[in-house]
Design brief:
Layout lengths: L1 E6 L5 E8 L1 H4 L5 H15 L58 H17 L3 E4 L9 H10 L7 E5 L4 H7 L5 E5 L5 H6 L2 E5 H11 L2
Parallel strand pairs: 1-3, 3-6, 4-5, 4-6
Antiparallel strand pairs: 1-2
Helix pairs in contact: 2-3, 4-5
Protein name: Large ribosomal subunit protein uL4
GO cellular component, one term: ribonucleoprotein complex
Family: Belongs to the universal ribosomal protein uL4 family.
Length: about 210
């Protein structure tokens, strides 16, 4: 059983503790499942729009530049030949879709494994639900300092989207804020520390335990 103290935004203990679900935060490592999920996430981010021109797509004359044999060098055809500067490219990149299918059960397991990894590193901080009245980066920085996560790559999970909290953290390069429903393995593993709002724990449980 894994218990974590609930802190307030001043970094003080509230006197409450939450028990992290063993079926989510207490799994044995499985690097291959994590690899597949992270690979799919990164593949889905690729635009796949890289394109180079082949010789048939280059503008230029089709006149043969030199005789076929006896010139003392390699054969070459027109000015669009790939062996010449400015010619077409051989087997260059073409627009393609890099995404691939991954079973839902594998994706769910990968998220559990990512959360388990952070739990085993003691890199999970649970904070009571909070709001910021007006978007101010300074206010968010103070909260991060109180929770002792400033200067570390931080992922903050909220129960629902919160515009003011999001805007307050938007300018901080090493901090990301997202609703718990959008949780993915890559974001969790990429963070040094995971800060979870108390109510977001229930959202995670509902999503990953069915």
């Amino acid at each position: 059983m894994m218990e974590v103290s609930v802190l307030d935004i001043k970094g003080q203990e509230t006197g409450r503790k939450v028990t992290l679900n063993e079926s989510i935060y207490g799994l044995e490592p499985n690097e291959h499942v994590l690899y597949l999920d992270v690979k799919q996430y990164l593949a889905n981010q690729r635009q796949g729009t890289a394109k180079s021109k082949e010789r048939s797509e280059i503008n230029g004359s089709t006149r043969k530049l030199g005789r076929q044999k006896g010139g003392g060098g390699a054969r070459r055809g027109d000015i669009k030949s790939p062996v010449l500067v400015g010619g077409g490219r051989v087997f260059g990149p073409k627009p393609r879709d890099y995404s691939f299918k991954l079973n839902k059960k594998v994706k769910v397991l990968a998220r559990k494994l990512a959360l388990s990894d952070k739990a085993q590193e003691n890199a999970i901080v649970v904070v009571e639900d909070f709001d910021i009245e007006t978007p101010k980066t300074k206010d968010f920085i103070n909260i991060a300092k109180n929770l002792k996560v400033d200067g570390r790559k931080t992922l903050l999970l909220l129960p629902t989207a919160n515009k003011n909290v999001y805007l307050s953290a938007r300018n901080l390069q090493r901090t990301e804020v997202m609703p718990a429903a959008m949780l993915n393995s890559y974001k969790v593993l990429n963070a040094d520390v995971l800060v979870i709002a108390e109510s977001a724990l229930k959202v995670i449980d509902e999503i990953l335990i069915k």
